[in-house]
């Protein structure tokens, strides 16, 4: 009995295995039959289409690709790849996934402008006229483009170049690129790489990926349909560096290298593309974040901010006419006075560029358009006209129905519908009477743009001891940067020397403040040996606008002057502004951004500007309207600055400034 139970168990297992194998065999057989049936039906369908003369489109597609390729001048290597892919496409069924991949690949090959170039203009007079029409100033940029055209005229051809425009926002970096393309008669396209973190955006994806596409460079060539366009790469200083998707800034090295870009290899196309005829123009706000190998491949042209006189000309010649036209006031007597423009720049728009100024100009003309329409009471008039037209149409319809003229009514209605549709699609512009006049001046400016954003030119009208106006440079342009130093406590024997620093100072600026503090102690002991101010002084140094991060070495002379002003208890003239890096021995070193800083000094009401002697050549290159009413002092050593600011302090006076305080400290020590 026990053996029978064991046998039964074995038989049950064998039965289960047999049933499972039977089920699997049936499923496999069913799938095979289904596929055979589909294949049989597809073959029948193809045979029927052939008998009826209906093609699957593959032959026509191949013929289309060949015709498009014949119109292009494909290089030998590209022609071979094209022929191989065409052969491969002819052997594939249209229903296969690989068919679509090869079709897209061939479409990209024949969509590129092989051997197609736009005819370039070598007229210097024409180029100068176009550049002057579109932009005011920018002498360096215009001269560089005219040199580029002159070289092309002598050689009979123009090779590609890589130019980088660097400057604060709103100075016209992107728009000058369009003007350059127009002056050279080249096609223009742009793309931004700000925040780009994927290298495939530049070099494309491999064809093996679903939905793969070429990179931005190849897409730009397809869009322009010429081999010599102007491609503007915007915000190159904000491109991503490294990451899980590669380093796009490194991918640009091949694109922007004249020695390599004649055979640029895109991952998708995987064939060499000649970019040597392309004029690349890059834009950036600062050079600090651009990788050095990438920066070395570009010719940098700095675009500085505009001064007040230049902004007035830009508004009068470019911004105001454009904004007036866009607001529909081209034929309306709306006047924006020069005084209003000056007030707008002084109290609302202090940035180096004109982007914010353009927004305010547009706002003024929109407000003027609103006032013109409101004063004419057009809304009530239009409402009455519409009511009258509706009443006339209803009366006419009733009369037509009464007379039985249904056909005429239908025609009338269709005509009304057509006319109303036509009027809604293209309404006639409103005609404004010549008697309407709008005057925007400095007095009524706030009615158009609101209350002033800035109320004063500088924080201090009269500066106490320890307060000095410095100058700073940012990506937005130049600005004034005050440095304040105060005594935390009166001089006292129990107080040990101490320096506190606040104002979101960066590491370099903290080191600069410590250096200026040490230099000031050394310099004071040298000039006034009996002035022991720094032996017992607890000083707090602060740079206003504490929410704004600040860094850089160019405030060294400003901090030293602040410390010495406090130690000598002497105020600095509020109209003196300064900038310069200071060494421990008192040497004043060269700084950058002098033009922007000079503009900021002038805007803040400074009459004297102190800068390093090594920057004297930069000062000489500044336009006269920037240097006007500014007295320069080029300092080689800090001694030059001290003689200008503290020359009226005698040795005796300097030694005895804190005499009473130290006598009290000494007498208290003797009593103890």
UniProtKB/TrEMBL annotation:
The keyword ATP-binding applies. It is an enzyme of class 3 (hydrolase). Residues 462-648 form the Lon proteolytic domain. The keyword DNA damage does not apply. It is found in: Mitochondrion matrix. GO terms for biological process: chaperone-mediated protein complex assembly; mitochondrial protein quality control; mitochondrion organization; regulation of mitochondrial DNA metabolic process. Its EC number is 3.4.21.53. Residues 411-431 are annotated as: Disordered. Belongs to the peptidase S16 family. PANTHER family: LON PROTEASE, LON PROTEASE HOMOLOG, MITOCHONDRIAL. This is endopeptidase La. It comes from Vanderwaltozyma polyspora (strain ATCC 22028 / DSM 70294 / BCRC 21397 / CBS 2163 / NBRC 10782 / NRRL Y-8283 / UCD 57-17) (Kluyveromyces polysporus).
